[in-house]
Amino acid sequence: MDRKAPLVLTAAICGAEVTRDQSPAVPYTAIELAEESARCFAEGARVIHLHVRRPDGSPTQDRETFRAAILAIRSKVPEVIIQVSTGGAVGMTVDQRTEPLELDPEFCTLTTGTCNFGNEVFSNPFPVIEAIAARARKHAVRMEIEAFDAGFIDNALALHRKGLIPDPLHFDFVLGVPGAMIGTEDRLDFMRSTIPAAATWMVAGVGRYELPLAKAAIERGGHVRVGLEDNLFLSKGVLAKGSWELVRAAADLARESDRSLATPEEARRILSVPMRA
Asked: What domains are there in the chain, each with its CATH number?
């Protein structure tokens, strides 16, 4: 990848695990998600990685809750790429996890392996991965491969050879989850050494790994995901005021490395995500 190519920033603004007990900035409602998306876009994010919540903050993959959030975000920032999660929350079924795909979104995640996830297990056996990928293909949704560990990449490449994950491949290395691969630069370098040369990649560092890995990815020509889903703190002991502040920090790192931020049009070209009609 071109080390000076425009940087695509993704904002993971909500997630399924973090709550307002941990940070008052976590958005729950469609309006809150839209307002946070607009703030992140203003700071340079071109992709919103979207989970949704019930009014009490509990995670859901309900199609209509996603519809309300997507419509609200589109009303605020029509240019932004909206990426729906098919990971949902630990323990959800395939049918639950794929409800947002029924809305024909432009972009989604596809997790290609199973790992410990804190004290739980994020279960993705091959029948589950293949079922989610098939539903994404049915709705012509661009897939981002989420790899929490090295074997996830091998699984994705095997599915790609079978025609279940189409070209062009795009990977998100999610590093630092307790129970999966640690978030150090040597692990990042190993992960990116195992993907095809033509693939694009980004990194999502979890917790204290978020901004150091963002800096490492920027220097290596990759792309970056930040946000409250992955990390609540701007620095040790200092809560971020919102995902927008973490996007700003990543954008500052890009400027320090002389990398421009992608325009909305450049982001769509780099990620091969065309605008839906």
From this structure: 9-271 (3.20.20.70)
